[in-house]
Amino acid sequence: MGMMSGTFWKPMTSNTIFVAQNTRTRRTDLDPMAMQTFYLSNVSQQVDATEVLAALRNIFDQTTKVFLVPSQNAIVLRATPDQLALAQELLNNLDRTMPEVVVDVAVLEVNRDKERKLGIVLPQKVTLTPETSSTNSSTSTTTSTTKSATSSTSATALSNLALNWHS
Is 81 part of a structural domain of the chain? Predict the structure, then answer.
């Protein structure tokens, strides 16, 4: 019935209602207003609080008063109880922690002068000498890891094989 006549009603007492024209000024005059302070917990800079304030001002109409208190990281709203409930829900969604990425960087330096002092020491020269005895045809191998230039062999040896390995 109120939509057809362009009116709205408001209960005054348990058995009395008030009927008025449904205009913006009459609504603001007759709707119950309340005030609530919302504290922002995830504001790291003043710009973050200003963005939340701008979002609330864009969502609500001009009758809803929205104020920022920068020293407290708080937003004060003066609105109807329904609008305050909506503002609480919006602020729960807007006041979130910012995503962050943590990068661990390790800068290492390799000194090539110290590479020979670490680990095992490889031999500088390896000599293999096959020897053959006159009574046996088997071959024996002698390995020397010294830095001497040659190994002496007997007169009966057929040949000397030297393998030099240098690093």
Answer: yes
Cα–Cα separations (whole angstroms), residue 140 to 129, 137, 143: 8, 10, 10
Per-residue pLDDT tens digits for 127-160: 888 887 766 544 444 444 444 444 444 333 434 4
- Residue 162: is its pLDDT beyond 60? no
Print burial letters for 51-87: b (CB count within 10 Å at least 16), e (below 16): ebbeebeeebeebbebebeeeebebebebbeebbebb
Host domain of residue 40: 32-96
DSSP state of 14: T
Q: What is the pTM of this model?
A: 0.47
Q: Do 40 and 78 reside in the same domain of the chain?
A: yes
